[in-house]
Amino acid sequence: MKLMGKIDRIDAEAGNDGEARTKAILVDYKSGSVPSMTEMKRGLHFQMPLYLLALRDLLGDRFEVIGSAYYQVKSPHEIGLKSLLITKEDLRRFSGATAKNLFESPDELLAFLCEYANRAAQIHAQIQHGEFPPTTLGETAAKCEWCDYRRICRVDHQRMANIVSDV
Ligand code: SF4
C-alpha cells in the first residue's frame, strides 16, 4: 500500500552525539480542530499513526522516533501541542512536559500503531475489491467539506437532492 503525505515538522533532541539514536517527535500543524485522543483511540483518525510508522521506517537508522503531536494554531487560547501519541516517560524526558491520555509503555504505543496499520491495510484491500463502505461519521467529522467526491457521494442524500433540483 502506498500513501502520500507531508510531515510539517520534526523536533529532534539537541546535543546527542553519542552512539544512541537521536530522539525525535513529529509535529503536524493544524489551524482548525484537532482530533481528540478519544477519537484517535477509537480508530477514527489515521493520519498521525500512519505518519509515525512511516517516519520510523524512513529515519529509523538515525533517529528514534518516539512520538507525534498536533500543534494547534488557532486563537491565542488554542495554541500548543495536542493529542500526543507518545509514552508518559518519553514526553517527560524529551520536553519535561506532561499531558493526559498518554501511553504507559513503548509496547502499548506500538500495539496502538499496529492496529491502525492493520485497519488501513484491511480498508485498502476492501477498496481494491471495489468495496467502499459508507462512513458512519457525520458530515463534519468525516470532513466532507474538503472531499473531492462530495458531489457524487451517496452518503449525503440531501446534497444529491439539492444538486438535482439545481440542474
Ligand atoms: S463526501 Fe462522502 S466520500 Fe467524501 S468524505 Fe464525505 S462521506 Fe466520505
Automatic annotation (TrEMBL):
InterPro entries: PDDEXK-like_dom_sf, PDDEXK_AddAB-type, Restrct_endonuc-II-like. Residues 2-154 form the PD-(D/E)XK endonuclease-like domain. It holds the Pfam family PDDEXK_1. This is Nuclease subunit B homolog. The lineage of its organism: Bacteria, Candidatus Moduliflexota, Candidatus Moduliflexia, Candidatus Moduliflexales, Candidatus Moduliflexaceae.
